[in-house]
Amino acid sequence: MNFEFLAPTRILFGSGRRQELKELLPGPQQKLLIVTGSVPDRYWDLLGPLEAAHALMVVSVRGEPSTLEAEEATTKARAFGATRVIAIGGGSAIDLAKAVAALVPQPEGLASYLEVVGAGKPLHRPALPLFAIPTTAGTGAEVTRNAVLTDKATRVKASLRHRSMLPELALVDPELAITVGPAVTAATGLDALTQCLEPFVSHAHTPLTDALGLMGAKLALDHVRQACSEPDSLQAREALATSALCGGIALANSKLGAVHGFAAPLGGELGAPHGAVCARLLGPVIRVNYTKLRATSGGEDGAFRYEELARYLYGSPNAQVNDLAELLEQTANELGIERLAAYGLTRSAFPALIGKAARASSMKGNPVLLSETELEHILELAL
User: How far is CA 241 from the centre of its chain?
Assistant: First the structure.
């Protein structure tokens, strides 16, 4: 077996470790672009002390970042002369930071490098160095080599991707997620779960991504309810933060699948929370994929991997794949995740969404090729 494994240069994990940020920055008088969520002052106790030794410029993002926001932030960063980027926030802030860090050194604009709706060229020059400090536990963006941006003109989410976009440092402090409310905790926790499961069944899985996927999925499934009901529980927050790391590293080295193949166009079309969309698609995708694998010549390995997942996550040697799908759907129900119809999905939108999903880069990792009828069935089950 041949495979390659990429990971951030360094991961620092633990409660309170955010206080080490100042000492981790190399050299004096860096020009630091700080990318945060919509309320930058929330993190000023962490960022304020940097002002004595460095020049700072702050960019904030509300919601999932768009291509326009990435281009505007890149223009500001170039004018500022940014030498390093620090992202502190959820997956949206980290994705915007990674996009800007990638684009600042490039001779061409975003459209040249963006997948699906752009030319998809590799970056001409390495990205600026980036420190990523996640405040939610879901996307694993702190350890991935891509940034997801929404192109509002086409209502499609697409990735900017390059190995130099892997953060130089992922500083993961689970205490930062304590103030995150139950709805966001549920959605991000189930996103982490999905990003552990899809690489495990992907045709591009490796022994290392297998180990990360199994461990991360178990941590998310066992602790997401507790994190929602007991937000101050560091045990639960640490478990979800670890799960997000596992999922991020796994997907950076393997591939995803039909859940994320649909999640990108659905998020662009409906504006629904990414984690909530993933949570509602996960059970239906498992059901449809497993049925197709069982009926496909050569699909025995993929079917077996689903069976292994069911036994491990359901906690019984007799568990069936449908038991796992039901467990995941029940978990989404218990955590208040709405079905996709609640976000505005209608059957009339199915053909366009199916077309976009079939072309999505994530769909290439699905363990089996799905027909339009099977993709439609997934949406019906999640509606």
Answer: 12
Chain segment 269-296, per-residue pLDDT in tens: 787 888 999 999 999 999 999 999 999 9
Based on the fold, state whether residues 164 and 206 are members of the same structural domain.
no
What whole-number distance in Å separates Cα of residue 167 and Cα of residue 86?
10
The counts of H helices and E strands in the chain are 14, 8
pLDDT in tens, 226-265: 999 999 999 999 999 999 999 999 998 999 999 999 998 8
Counting the structural domains of the chain, the total is: 2
Alpha carbon distance 185, 241 (integer Å): 11
CATH number at residue 224: 1.20.1090.10
User: What CATH number is given to the structural domain containing 91?
Assistant: 3.40.50.1970
3-state secondary structure 319-330: CCHHHHHHHHHH
> Which tokens in the block code for residue 51?
């002002």
DSSP string, 4-32: -----SEEEESTTGGGGHHHHS-SSS-EE
Which structure tokens are listed for 131? 């420190």
Supply the DSSP string of 111-131, one letter for each residue. Answer: HHH-TTTS--PPPSSPPPPEE
* Same-domain check for residues 242 and 321: yes
The range of the structural domain enclosing residue 99 comes to 10-177
The predicted pLDDT at position 240 comes to 97
In a domain, 80, yes or no: yes
pLDDT of 28 above 80: no
- pTM, whole model, 2 decimals? 0.93
